[in-house]
């Protein structure tokens, strides 16, 4: 699999007139979104992958020597000592003058870019982001199976967590229970920092769990995901602790109607903008257009946020075997909000929702 992925990447490099690509991973980077793991299987936190048109070389330190023997495929492993970038200054593949190597400038600090240029002064560095822009968008059968398992873990963990949800429980406690249950069910790590936002805080689209105590009558929004074999899920559910008010039911049902319509629109060949339009029109016609300020969804896979995008600005067209989220929401400042999100496989004839967790309004 790694060999095939690198081979596909080389075709893009040639198309972009690049002699190679340099991909970096350091301790301070987000390990849960590792391009190295996708391309060569390495799940550690530090390494540099140099992909040329005829060979691929992976450089890391002694901490990962045995790990590389077990994980790395498709690249020759080099165990180096000292500063990782400095140790590569004599790498012969980068010695010839005027070679053009791409780097992903969105993932490298200015300091590291300068350091690369200092170590390899004869190399012409260019933007390599385009070559990996659609990395992992379309899934094979194994990838789809892994995502399906990550979704299953999330669904079950959510069901278990609900048993402890009651007035007086802190958002942070609910988040900890959710992440604990995902780990116990087989998740490697939470796919991202879990969102739990209750009451007025549910109006925050990315309201990370706080010390706030959940109160009777609160909306509580959960946005969370599991990781299985490196592949992630990304799910949102909103519940009411206690009996829902008429206003809560109204807002919830608008979002649910929009979300279901968006899922029905998902199909290979349909644009990401078209899916967003369907959801946005329902919410706007209900009078809450200004309260839906983000895109309807995005792709997931080895990374939590990849393409295609489902948004008003999206230029992407859906392709079979992509997995996208459909997650419209309404957020009313000072009162609360609702978001509902499923992970959806794009098919040639429509879509397949992976989540089994009910979407009817739960009154706990």
Topology:
Blueprint: H1 2-15, E1 20-25, H2 35-40, E2 47-52, E3 56-60, H3 65-71, E4 76-79, E5 99-103, H4 110-119, E6 123-127, H5 141-162, H6 171-184, E7 195-198, E8 219-224, E9 227-228, E10 231-232, E11 235-240, H7 246-265, H8 272-285, E12 297-299, E13 306-310, E14 323-326, E15 329-332, E16 336-339, E17 342-346, E18 351-353
Helix pairs in contact: 5-6, 7-8
Alpha-carbon Rg, integer? 22 Å
Q: What percentage of the residues does DSSP assign to strands (E)?
A: 15-25%
CATH superfamily of the largest domain: Creatinase/methionine aminopeptidase superfamily
Query: What would the CATH topology of the largest domain be?
Result: Creatine Amidinohydrolase
Alpha plus pi helix count: 8
Q: Helicity range of the residues?
A: 25-40%
Average the pLDDT over all residues and give the rounded result: 93
Oligomer: single chain
Q: How many separate domains make up the residues?
A: 2
CATH level-two architecture of the largest domain: Alpha-Beta Complex
């Amino acid at each position: 699999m790694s060999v095939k992925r690198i081979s596909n990447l080389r075709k893009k490099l040639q198309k972009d007139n690049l002699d190679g690509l340099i991909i970096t991973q350091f301790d301070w980077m987000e390990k849960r979104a590792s391009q190295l793991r996708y391309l060569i299987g390495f799940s550690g936190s530090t390494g540099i992958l140099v992909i040329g048109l005829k060979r691929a070389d992976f450089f890391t330190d002694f901490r990962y020597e045995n790990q590389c023997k077990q994980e790395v495929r498709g690249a020759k492993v080099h165990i180096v000592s000292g500063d990782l970038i400095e140790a590569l200054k004599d790498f012969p593949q980068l010695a010839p003058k005027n070679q053009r190597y791409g780097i992903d400038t969105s993932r490298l600090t200015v300091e590291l870019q300068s350091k690369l240029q200092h170590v390899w002064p004869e190399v012409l560095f260019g933007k390599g982001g385009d070559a990996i822009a659609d990395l992992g968008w379309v899934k094979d059968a194994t990838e789809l199976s892994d995502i399906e398992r990550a979704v299953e873990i999330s669904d079950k963990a959510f069901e278990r967590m609900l048993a402890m949800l009651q007035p007086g429980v802190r958002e942070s406690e609910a988040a900890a229970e959710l992440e604990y249950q995902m780990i116990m069910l087989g998740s490697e790590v939470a796919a991202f920092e879990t969102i739990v936002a209750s009451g007025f805080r549910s109006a925050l689209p990315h309201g990370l769990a706080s010390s706030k105590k959940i109160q009777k009558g609160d909306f509580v929004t959960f946005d969370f995901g599991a990781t299985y074999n490196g592949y992630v899920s990304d799910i949102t559910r909103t519940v009411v602790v206690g009996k829902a008010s008429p206003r809560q039911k109204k807002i919830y049902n608008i979002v649910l109607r929009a979300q279901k319509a968006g899922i029905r629109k998902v199909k290979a060949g349909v644009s990401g903008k078209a899916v967003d339009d369907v959801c946005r029109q329902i919410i706007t016609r209900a009078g809450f257009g200004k309260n839906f300020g983000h895109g309807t969804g995005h792709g997931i896979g080895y990374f939590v946020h990849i393409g295609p995008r489902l948004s008003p600005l999206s230029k992407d067209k859906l392709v079979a075997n992509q997995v996208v989220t459909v997650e419209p929401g309404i957020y009313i400042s000072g009162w609360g909000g609702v978001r509902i999100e499923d992970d959806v496989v794009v098919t040639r004839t429509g879509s397949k929702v992976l989540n089994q967790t009910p979407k009817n309004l739960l009154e706990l």
